[in-house]
Amino acid sequence: xxxxxxxxxxxxxxxxxxxxxxxxxxxxxxxxxxxxxxxxxxxxxxxxxxxxxxxxxxxxxxxxxxxxxxxxxxxxxxxxxxxxxxxxxxxxxxxxxxxxxxxxxxxxxxxxxxxxxxxxxxxxxxxxxxxxxxxxxxxxxxxxxxxxxxxxxxxxxxxxxxxxxxxxxxxxxxxxxxxxxxxxxxxxxxxxxxxxxxxxxxxxxxxxxxxxxxxxxxxxxxxxxxxxxxxxxxxxxxxxxxxxxxxxxxxxxxxxxxxxxxxxxxxxxxxxxxxxxxxxxxxxxxxxxxxxxxxxxxxxxxxxxxxxxxxxxxxxxxxxxxxxxxxxxxxxxxxxxxxxxxxxx
Length: 345
Description:
Blueprint: H1 6-13, H2 17-24, H3 32-45, H4 51-58, E1 63-68, H5 74-89, E2 93-98, H6 103-115, E3 120-124, H7 130-138, E4 145-148, E5 157-162, H8 164-177, E6 183-187, H9 197-213, E7 223-225, H10 230-241, E8 249-252, H11 255-267, E9 277-279, E10 296-298, H12 301-317, E11 326-329, E12 332-334
Parallel strand pairs: 1-2, 1-3, 3-4, 4-5, 5-11, 6-7, 6-8, 8-9
Antiparallel strand pairs: 10-12
Helix pairs in contact: 1-2, 1-3, 2-3, 5-12, 8-9, 10-11
């Protein structure tokens, strides 16, 4: 069924589309009699104005544009969910785009959202090229921008980050405390599209620092590159198992790759944690539901979304007084069965 238009309401009331538009937008010049007749028709017919089209015409937005690296990753979904709830409480809608770990899509999404006259932009993960954001910020009259888990080195971009180095250090140290020495890491991709620059580097540094603290010499054969997706974790785990002496434990840079690693360990006829322990990163909801439950680093997903909404609110309410924010959140170890060394081994 086609959406109702101003013309449909106007024909119902016997008035012009301009009069219907005036009533919908609260113009004072419409008589009380006409206003009542038009408003009754609007209510009865269920007409709702096209707010996006209104933004294009008036150049006044009503929604926050959000670009996410990968909506199939529950971490991003949880952050967006928190952000959406907070924005609705402040009366803002949300336009959501998925860049699918592709900079060409992310850059295009940014341009389209700007053309739609959103009131703010939230960039989650490695979804838009830094130079694209830089060009946009350099334009006069830009709306506030919040980057979550991407440390853009750009004046005017608010950044919300997680101390991933500490989280990775804690995860690796936990495995060492369980008595494991041959600890592999499945990391994110090298520099480039889908690299999730900040988290990738920080998690690798934390892993290396924990090994150094314990006097364990890093072994290049225990490093495998993934892509932050389930299939990437599977491929990385297959390479680790094919590399000769198998690892005693694996630290994966996110839960999706950890799940992929666990599936390959089982395919190989091995058990978690009896043969190979596994730790992830993010604490997505399914981490507690798998068997065995996945030990992981809990990211403050709800806090990240709420903080982004709060920053947007301050910038919209008082743009001249709102300061650019760079805030780092902590992350905590959640111990479940996947990393616990069997008794007697």
